[in-house]
Design a protein that fits this description.
The protein has two domains: 2-43 and 183-400, no CATH class; 51-164, 3-Layer(aba) Sandwich (abc type-2 transporter like fold), CATH 3.40.1710. Helix 7 packs antiparallel against helix 12, helix 8 crosses helix 9 (269-290) and helix 9 runs antiparallel to helix 12. The protein has 401 residues and is mostly helical. It contains 14 helices and four strands. Helix 3 (62-72) links the parallel strand 1 (51-57) and strand 2. Strands 2-1-3-4 form a four-stranded mixed beta sheet, sandwiched between helices. It has helices at residues 2-19, 22-43, 62-72, 86-94, 108-114, 129-157, 184-218, 231-260, 269-290, 299-314, 326-333, 336-350, 358-382, 395-400; strands spanning 51-57, 77-82, 100-104, 121-124. It is elongated, with a radius of gyration of 29 Å. It is 63% helix and 5% strand.
Length: 401
């Protein structure tokens, strides 16, 4: 009973410190509540449409004009005008009046009429890959449609009915699992929100640790607001406080945000919440481990700037983890959000169950155990250096009395 009482005291003390520190409150509540909405609003158009494009038509025939009209009719491409030559088209590209150039060769119609292959050149501003992706999809669709039309004309000229041309020799049908609209928000938001959970928890822990370090410097190495409980009870009590706060936030971020913006959502709350519990515990113990490096309150802001982009790339959201070098893949294995993101995307995009994502849940459990042991070891090692309080009573205990 004394052990559980010490955990309760550590939990109550950590909760008291969290709700009396405006900076920690901002990281623990404002960041996870507001950031998912802001990010989703930014990416909510989902796809890029009507991209301004210039055509350099060297053929100037009915066939080339038909090709330009077909390109303009797509959702992604908007033909803003014709350029007399490539230098004029390049000037339009440099002045951001267009983001792509389509050059139709002079022998376009002649090659089609004689049955020879023809080549259409495409130049694209690669400053945004999402624009190139939309260009590529639109050009592929138009090319296939033009191939069907030209083939039907050749068959008709050969004396056969055009009904014999029913399609390409090998047709294709694309099914975009988990992202039927091929939208950018539907692709990136499920991973971003998991990273937001981890980052906000780590930043709040680091800020609280920096505040405690400031108090120790002002009081000759002793923290008047410290709570003297055994190391195991302290680590578990802090983790219990963090779980109490972030488990409802995880439900809000992973359930209400997709529903609010009508993003694809195939995961069931009973499947992903146990995995989020493991990730929150692993992140809490990781934060209590990293607290040794925090000596000032402002250090948490540096942690935000330095680790956010690093964790984003190491998560596998922007580049597949199997393509990492062995070193960086090993580094990403020790980040809780890597496994939480991977498991949640499998659930949300493919409808996987908790059992199907055991390859993500087991590493999360191992990380929670590993960081619990490191946090416990550091708590015991640093206690003689001034982390003990001058009293056995916690500030929250005094306030309760």
């Amino acid at each position: 009973m004394k052990f559980f009482h010490n955990i309760f005291r550590a939990w109550r003390h950590e909760t008291y410190l969290v709700f009396t520190d405006i900076g920690v409150l901002l990281f623990f509540f404002f960041l996870p509540l507001a950031y998912p909405i802001v990010y989703t609003l930014i990416y909510n158009p989902e796809i890029v449409t009507e991209i301004p494009t210039v055509v350099v038509d060297r053929s100037r025939t009915a066939e080339s004009r038909q090709l330009a009209r077909a390109l303009d009719a797509t959702q992604s491409i908007h033909i803003t005008g014709y350029a007399a030559d490539m230098p004029e088209a390049r000037r339009a590209l440099a002045q951001k009046e267009a983001y792509g150039i389509i050059e139709i060769p002079a022998d376009y119609a002649r090659n089609i009429g004689t049955g020879r292959p023809t080549t259409m050149s495409f130049y694209c501003d690669m400053s945004l890959l999402i624009r190139y992706r939309q260009y590529l999809l639109a050009l592929t669709d138009v090319r296939m449609d033009q191939t069907m039309t030209i083939t039907a004309q050749r068959v008709s000229q050969g004396g056969l009915p055009t009904t014999t041309v029913s399609g390409l020799p090998v047709d294709q049908h694309a099914f975009f699992m988990g992202d039927p609209t091929q939208g950018f928000a539907s692709f990136i938001i499920p991973g971003i929100v998991v990273l937001i959970l981890q980052q906000s928890l780590l930043l709040g822990i680091c800020m609280a640790s920096g505040t405690a370090a400031d108090r120790r410097r002002r009081n000759n190495g002793r923290d008047p607001l410290a709570c003297h409980t055994p190391a195991v009870a302290t680590v578990l009590g802090k983790a219990l406080c963090h779980t109490m706060i972030f488990l409802p936030l995880a439900y809000y971020i992973l359930t209400f945000i997709p529903h609010m913006f009508r993003l694809p959502q195939q995961a069931h709350v009973a499947q992903y919440m146990p995995m989020m519990l493991l990730m929150i515990l692993a992140t809490s113990f990781l934060g209590q481990t990293l607290r040794i490096f925090v000596r000032e309150r402002e250090t948490s802001l540096l942690v935000l700037v330095f680790t956010s982009v690093v964790f984003l790339f190491l998560s596998g959201l922007t580049w597949p983890r199997y393509a990492f070098s062995p070193f960086w893949k090993a580094v990403s294995d020790f980040i809780p959000a890597t496994w939480g993101l991977e498991g949640f995307i499998h659930m949300n995009g493919n409808g996987a169950t908790l059992a199907d994502t055991a390859s993500s849940c087991i590493p999360l459990a191992l990380l929670a155990l590993l960081y619990f042991l490191t946090a416990l070891a550091l708590r015991k090692a640093l206690a003689p250096r001034g982390l003990r309080s001058t009293t056995n009573r916690c500030p929250a205990d005094t306030r309760a009395d």
